[in-house]
Specification:
This protein is an alpha+beta fold and about 210 residues long. It folds into 2 domains: about 5-80 and about 200, Glutaredoxin, CATH 3.40.30.10; about 90-195, Up-down Bundle (Glutathione S-transferase Yfyf (Class Pi), Chain A, domain 2). It is about 45% helix and about 10% strand. The chain contains 9 helices and 4 strands. The protein has helices at about 15-25, 45-50, 70-80, 90-105, 110-115, 125-145, 155-170, 180-190, 195; strands at about 5-10, 30-35, 55-60, 65. A 4-stranded mixed beta sheet has the order 2-1-3-4, with helices on one face. The radius of gyration is 17 Å and the shape is globular. The relative contact order is 0.15. InterPro entries: Glutathione-S-Trfase_C-like (IPR010987), Glutathione-S-Trfase_C_sf (IPR036282), Glutathione_S-Trfase (IPR040079), Glutathione_S-Trfase_N (IPR004045), GST_C (IPR004046), GST_Zeta (IPR005955), GST_Zeta_C (IPR034330), GST_Zeta_N (IPR034333). GO terms for molecular function: glutathione transferase activity; maleylacetoacetate isomerase activity. One of its GO terms (cellular component) is mitochondrion.
Length: about 210
């Protein structure tokens, strides 16, 4: 059987979600790095693979999939072992609500493409402001839903999406003392090998000065 191939960038939140899920579901895969800082996503070769010119792209089961949430849903539907969506429909809806709060309301306005159009003097202040704003709302939701993880005591896609966003928040110096539930869940998730293996500074394309073993 062909080994899945992930077109990846070590610091991409969207790619990190896929790495974690592949690890969680024990799917072996190969990585092909795409350096976003060098605009490798805009090359003719890569555009032929992913016309959206973003990462991740996952080649699996003879198809090429793009957009991280679509990929997550596909992996859940085709590899139902070790589920990341609860069986209970209310909990599933809560997971998806938190996913959307992160992947639709927060991450897009703080990603690299947006920051390139923000004046240089504001490139830390802008994502700090919007992540802080969103984290206040997410923290309030988690106060009602969290146990060990975002939704009770099960690891779900909500946790898979939250962890990269907290990493990004730390990079732009968001005051995480304001968000104790988010910080606790982040720390708890990184104790799990599947999340730990997906950490940006452990990826093959991470610069040597940042790399962790």
């Amino acid at each position: 059987m062909e080994v899945p191939t992930l077109y990846d960038y070590y610091r991409s939140s969207c790619s990190w979600r896929i790495r974690t899920t592949l690890n969680w579901k024990e799917i072996n895969y190969e990585t092909i790095p795409v350096n976003l800082l060098k605009d490798e996503q805009k090359t003719t070769e890569y555009k032929a693979i992913n016309p959206f010119q973003v990462v991740p792209t996952l080649k699996i089961d003879g198809v090429t999939l793009t957009q991280s949430i679509a990929i997550l849903e596909y992996l859940e539907e085709t590899r139902p072992g070790k589920p990341l969506l609860p069986k209970d429909p209310i909990k599933r809806a809560l997971v998806r609500s938190l996913m959307q709060a992160i992947v639709s309301d927060t991450q897009p306005i703080t990603n690299l493409r947006v920051l390139k159009y923000v004046e240089e003097a504001r490139r830390d202040e802008w994502p700090n402001h919007w992540m802080t704003y969103s984290f206040h709302l997410i923290e309030a939701q988690l106060a009602a839903t969290a146990g060990e993880y975002c939704i009770g005591d099960e690891v779900t896609f909500a946790d898979v999406c939250l962890v990269p966003q907290v990493f990004n928040a730390n990079r732009v110096k968001v005051d995480m003392t304001k968000f104790p539930i988010i910080q606790r869940i982040y720390n708890k998730c990184l104790e799990l090998k599947e999340f730990n293996m997906a950490y940006p500074y452990r990826q093959i394309d991470c610069p040597d000065e940042l790399k962790e073993k």
